[in-house]
Amino acid sequence: MSMPAKKFVIDFKDIDKRDVPLVGGKNANLGEMIKAGLPVPPGFAITIHAYDLFLEENTLVERIYKILNETNVENPDELKNASKQIQSIVQRGKVPEIVAQEIIAFYKKMSGIFKHTLVAVRSSATAEDAPGTSFAGQQATFLNIKGEANLIESVKQCWASLFTERSIFYRVQNHVKHEKVKVSVGVQKMIQSEVSGVMFSMDPVTNDKERMVIEAVWGLGEMIVQGSVVPDKYVVQKDTFDILSKEVSDQSIQLIKIDGVTKETQVPKKVRETQKITDEEIVKLARMSQKLQEHYYFPQDSEWAKEKGELYLVQTRPITTVNAVTKASKQQNSNDIKMASLPILTGAPASPGIGTGPVKILKSPKEIGKIEKGDVLVAPMTSPDYVPAMKKANAIITDQGGQTSHAAIVSRELGIPCVVGTQMATHELKDGMIVTVDGETGQIYMGSKVKVEVSNIKQESKSKDSKTRTATKIYVNLAEPERANEVSKLNVDGVGLLRAEFMIANIGIHPKEAIKLKKQDEFVKKLTHDISTFCEAFSPRPVVYRATDFKTNEYRSLPGGKYWEPEEPNPMLGFRGAYRYVSSPEVFNLELQAIKNVRGKYKNLHLMIPFCRSPQELARVKKLVAVSDLFADSTFKFWMMVEIPVNVIQIEDFIKVGIDGVSIGSNDLTMLILGVDRDNSEVAIEFDERSPSVMWALRRVIKRCAKYGVTTSICGQAPSQYPEIVEKLVKWGITSISVNPDVVGTTREIVHEAERNING
Q: Which of 647 and 62 is assigned the larger pLDDT?
């Protein structure tokens, strides 16, 4: 039964789906689940009447909508300022006494039962969790809230979160009038999750309606949402509830309550790699998911938690991509989908595999919030600030670039199918369109291809990772801490290129801005943690960390970056690499401190300096490293990238500065030798690492380094793409070859064959 108007607080058990206009989709669903007999933690909803009265008594309505009406949301600065203004005036407002009294009365009732229980405080917008429109995640959630004053403050913050930049932008993009969306707040007994996760009553990636997917992590489920850990994944057959597959992840960190505060902690080593819930619990959750779908007559995306052996449901919402998939599928004959007939677009194959999903077009990095798990990311080109969105995508398509562009390299590292250089993907494709991307052929099809093709590709890649040994070391290129454990299990001898840029980007602030705000300790701590993840996974195998090589345009995209970075006409040849360390030693020192911290525990970490323009510049960088006392440990290795023609021409002079090894960045080196921009699709066809001039450069570097006892490696894409180059590198005496994870096995077999031919 719907509640009378002007009721400010209502118990969950007294509301249902008919009360969405009063308590929002999230709260209405909680009440609905309770009435359906499902295990939901108790709580209450603060209605939109409370929100309306708050706005009225603080005379905020006209002020808020005046600001919004005068704001161009396409202008990031205008959007940011509007959001900041509105949230500030909301947070300064006073909660009406009658509302505060009702909230406190309900809270005391819960506290009486549960002895001053901690609560979760969640927003529930009136346009949220509705079929076809997902506003989920747009507003705030606060966990482990205790005490009346803290509760009231959290409620205000939930109200204010209706006006975050993302929320404002999302409403405009979805043509939802601001004044039509109001926010209720849910207050629920906090479940101190031993394990938590999400589950889908159909496969959200393949859209297989006969299978259910359950994900689980240690601690609170926010870790799944943040993408900060890899969850266990269990696939269950509908109707029979047979467990079809289990992927158990190695989870090192978790989010739990300690002394009333939510903190990130280490997962005990004895359970890190164990299955997070029992088979019986998997089936129990699957039955709940099935019951939810039957109750709502629509596939559901649900959140669950386990406390003291009991399973609870804490949220459910529709799977909003179902309608789009169904619509797209109806436009085609099933045979056409399976055969995939003719491609609608063709580009350069950049990362193997087949990925299917709805198109999401991003015109700039500012739109990365549009990407959801399972989407196909379509963009003119990508840069490091696209990475959070790329990690969610089933496949990636770009207008520009070649096989060694940023999109191609990162996609291969992430194991995501990718096609680049289509010229017109952002114009020809439309948001919501279901496409299949074949990263091996460079073709894009309308609709979904058969799933067996995907499994065959996965099986093929596994079969290539043999246990063959070679004298030439096979290293791997990496950037994402989330992949460290997975890739470390391959037949590799270490990490030949650990890119710093992605770790720095994930910290979420420009280093100079961090120093200005006195957050450098936090910056170093986060970087230390991420580097340690790689060193621990690969120990005792070496990990070669390449110091930050952001260009100015990439650095500007970091929060605070525009205040510190110049706008350059050609960032590729501008303020980057070694010159930055000499010019801004305070920033370089943050990296050195993180390296020193890691080496306190892991001696397999080494440092590589990129883009050195002269031996003198390298010498100045080496002095900065010396000040950090890293050279005091004889096990520490100091490497240099070879990626500029001057590195090849003056290689002996660079060696005399004192280096232990070099790694040839064949991508940049080829580009600068040939004068070809590999990211420019107009000329990318002329980019060829097999060019005689490039081959001459590689041979010269390897031979001269061998003469002086300096190890040599190569970390560009050439070895991954051209087996004939690998054979030449081995013949010339290269020490190691560093490639992307997907070609480790293949590369080792090629090296093995080359070594056998050389040795006769």
A: 647
**Active-site residue 406, yes or no?**
yes
- 468 domain residue, yes or no: no
- In a domain, residue 422? The reply is yes
In which domain, by residue range, is 434 found? 322-457
CATH code of residue 350: 3.50.30.10
Q: Which of 600, 621, 636 is the last residue of a domain?
A: 636
Active-site residue (options: 158, 418, 705, 715): 715
Token digits for 724?
């004939």
Identity of the residue numbered 205: V
From the number of C-beta atoms within 10 Å of its C-beta (0-12, 13-18, 19+), residue 228 rates as: middle
pLDDT in tens, 353-389: 888 889 999 988 888 888 988 899 999 888 766 777 8
Of the candidates 49, 406, 510, 752, the residue annotated as catalytic is 406
Instruction: Tell me if residue 510 is catalytic.
Output: no
Q: Could you tell me which of 600, 597, 594, 496 has the C-alpha nearest to residue 538? A: 496
The pLDDT of residue 228 is above 80:
no
φ/ψ of residue 83, rounded to 5: -60, -45
Q: In whole angstroms, give the CA distance from residue 296 to residue 289.
A: 11
- Residue 408 pLDDT > 80, yes or no? no
Asked if 440 and 500 sit in the same domain, the reply is no
Among 189, 220, 251, identify where a domain stops.
189
Report yes or no on 467 lying in a domain.
no
Query: Which residue from 401, 397, 349, 347 is spatially nearest to 678, judged by alpha carbons?
Result: 401
What sign does the CA torsion over 26, 31, 35, 41 have? positive
Q: Please give the average per-residue pLDDT across 638-652, as a whole number.
A: 97
pLDDT of residue 335: 33
E-strand ranges in 586-735 read 605-609, 638-642, 661-664, 711-714
Work out the mean pLDDT of the chain and round it to a whole number: 83
pLDDT reported for residue 116: 66
The identity of residue 578, as a single letter, is A
- Point out the least confidently predicted range of 19-28, 408-417, 749-758: 408-417
Sheet holding 183-189, edge to edge: 9-11, 43-46, 183-189, 119-125, 141-145
Within a domain: 466:
no
Shared domain check, 245 and 371? no
> Which pLDDT value is given to residue 289?
92
CB neighbours of residue 444 within 10 Å: 26
Burial (Cβ within 10 Å: 0-12, 13-18, ≥19) of residue 311: middle
Evaluate whether 263 touches 223 at the Cβ level (below 8 Å).
no
Q: Tens digit of pLDDT for each residue in 443-460?
A: 888 876 533 333 333 333
Residues 6 or more apart whose Cβ sits within 8 Å of residue 728: 695, 698, 699
Pairing mode, if any, of strands 253-258 and 261-266? Answer: antiparallel
Identify the CATH number of the domain in which residue 111 sits: 3.30.1490.20
